[in-house]
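Figure 2 data, in text form.
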Amino acid sequence: MAPSDPTGQAPFFIVQNTGSGRDNAQDVQATIRQVLDAAGRRHEFIAVDDGRQLTAAAQTAVERARQHDGIVVAAGGDGTLSAVAQVVLGTGLPFGILPQGTFNYFGRTYGIAQDAEIAARCLVAARPQPVQVGLVNGRIFLINASLGLYPQLLEDREAYKQRFGRSRAVALWSALVTLARAHRQLTVQLEHDDGQVRQLRTPTIVVGNNALQLEQIGIAEADELARGRLVAMGVRPVGALALYGLVLRGWLSRLGDAEHVFSFGFDRLTVHVGRGRRRIKVALDGEIQWLDTPLEFTVAPQSLRLLVPPDAQRVERA
């Protein structure tokens, strides 16, 4: 049974992806243990070194949390947080995070620091808050889901990180290299919940569920999320030089002003992919998966009970 209002006695069951983040995983774990021990909070780590093990680890954490009236916590990058949240959603259990990713959009949105010590101290004092979750074909996403060029950017970025380390500079450089290559255009049909249908060609479609990310790249519809909706973005067919310009606009928070970019809010969106494609590569919070078509995007009917620190302990979102 999940605690309706976690107190200082509820134990933490922490799923840690030791292959995620820029810092040494053992050092991170030791820091978290030190903070929780000092606060008198019981805790148990369930560590994995392979992202494919996250679902099983999260299921173990959920079972342990149910048995001990506890809290499930995810420690890792946005992909790790999303994978654990997939298992926690719908259980009624509170969900805590200890962000260790490159961009940390999800944690920053709620004022949760990337620094392990600060995040652990905030976790001790945090209380649950309902948080919107996006769905595509039954799979959740906390930040965004994308198809086309954007998943390729993420795959190339991961390869560069393996060679040169995890940093925002490496992520930017890998994106510039990827955009220099020729890319296929997707032929898609978009069906809105209001019956509107549009057909178009585009190198990529991204569906966003994170106001901070949308605001930082300059998408005006970011406030649609506060109304319980999602935001779709795409690019009309352009060359590599124009794509470079769009990257620059995104860094300057002006992507939404570009004539080649379209964006809109929605409650439900169906994406049909042309040429009879039955499956397509989709990136969910940075993790690549193959999903059956058509793609059905909507907001999850349940909210995630995210542990959010008090206002006085929150870090700046920027």
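Caption note: The chain has a mean pLDDT of 86.
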